[in-house]
Design a protein that fits this description.
The protein has about 575 residues and is an alpha/beta fold. It has 2 domains: about 325 residues, Up-down Bundle (ABC transporter transmembrane region fold); about 250 residues, Rossmann fold. About 65% of the residues lie in helices and about 10% in strands. The protein is built from 23 helices and 10 strands. A 6-stranded mixed β-sheet has the order 6-7-8-3-9-10. Strands 2-1-4-5 form a 4-stranded antiparallel β-sheet, with no helix packed on it. Helix 3 packs antiparallel against helix 5 and helix 12 packs antiparallel against helix 14.
Length: about 575
Amino acid sequence: MFSVLRNLGWFFRREKRRYTVGLVLLIVAGVAELAPPRLLGNAIDEIVNGSISWTSLTRYILMILGMLVFIYFITYIWMRELFGGSNLVERLLRSRFMAHLLRMTPPFFERNRTGDLMARATNDLRSVAQTAGFGMLTLTDSTIFLAVIFIAMSTIISLKLTLAAIIPLPFIALAMSIYGKVIHQRYTVAQDAFGDMNDQVLESVAGIRVIRAYVQERNDEKRFESITNDVYEKNLAVARVDAFFEPTIRLCVGISYAIGLAYGIYLVFHNELTLGELVSFNMYLGMMIWPMFAIGELINVMQRGGASLDRVNEILYTKPDVEDKSTPAEVSQPERIEFKDVTFRYPTSSVDNLNQINLNLHPGETLGVVGRTGSGKSTLLKQLLHEYPLGTGEILISGVPLENIPAEKLHSWIGYVPQEQILFSKTVRQNIQFGLKDASDETILEAIHTAAFDQDLQTLSDGLDTLVGEKGVALSGGQKQRVSLSRAFIADPEILILDDALSAVDARTEARIIENIRSKRSGKTTLISTHRLSAIEHADHIIVLEKGQIIEQGTHEELLSQGGWYREQYDRQQVESNLSDGEVS
């Protein structure tokens, strides 16, 4: 049950001053709370004996008020320290969780759903944080404070009466142990269901246009209702067990009160106890109600926190599929890029997605990659990003194997524009500045001009300050591509990778962008994959892929002379272009 505290040991060691102050003052407050009942009991005994005076009565009142004020200030401090620690551990774990996600590579996100990751980063971390605040409070009150009250009742009032009154306590401990195990199991299942619901919401929001286009709103509502019912049922299963905690404790506390009152009256009649002592004892017994409740709350919080921490640690202890070497190589600039007999297969694939690839790309050259859909164009380009464990063969940059180059260094050389553009829910300016932090408007406009987005920019309501919406929903496909291109161009990378990044623009805009790339990126390496051959006619070297293999390669002219797939595709596109021009004219 207390494994969650052991797993949070690093945090308690780090914040030992905070928790030392908080727990010590919590104990001091608990001890101080014993004084008012005892003072009240003494006052009642003096009244019964007729020895009370205005002076002693005033003294009792002032002492009780003084203790209450002291307890008030002490309580403020320990609550600030303990519950401040709860908020702090949540912030630290959430930052660590996010930093870990940013280190993960695509295979990790293929195995884990976004909704489930969000559930772990929100609900689960909140449950873990509770153990560092409320959990420490209930742990202290259900052990030390309970022991202090027991000792006070035994020594100050009556040991016999105390032992009789605490007979129900073992039954509370037994019941809490049984309930706690069930809570842990059911809460884990409920959190998994919450992750499924999150994932469904994300898919529905992201695909809202498709849902409406196919008139699937009602079906999606039914699907979501089914998932929410599942979440409801699984949380209700938790609540059913949770509901046993309070009645069980109330029953045992009621029995304790009955025993204490009945046996206490018996002792008073036999002059073994004074009336004031019985009043004090009943007040102490009332103070024991919270520690008894705290036992149940402790087990509840610890089991929930333990289940949640297990789910969070499952992610945090997952190692990236691609990690840097312990002694990485030092490479100042990327120069020659070489593929030597590279064969690669995705973890989820049953066949090789690249097979015996051999390439040499010198600094400043442009490589064109073409081929049928699914031939391996994107896979080939992504090898340079080193997002997956490498297959057989070697990929060298400046003569250094790719796996020996630190990922951060490698990615700093590369500007990557994927097939599916990802824009953030910010302005056009902020999205482009993602490639170069704090870039001036002049630099941004130059990148926009290179991406042929300048005319479109004038049509946007707020220009550079136009919000693009979630994932760029406010822009057309061609506009999203060109904002993504601007983001890559502004970074001025040593290696620019365009993975079918011109598919949503017309031929004239494409020709303008390609011409700008040729003039702006002179002396820098560029890799372009495309279905439109006009985008790579200027390339220094072109390869044609088929089922992960290079079936043709050479310059544009050399490939035309070979009369293979490239020539056939080129002729077909020329006919289509001429027909389009004829229709326009």
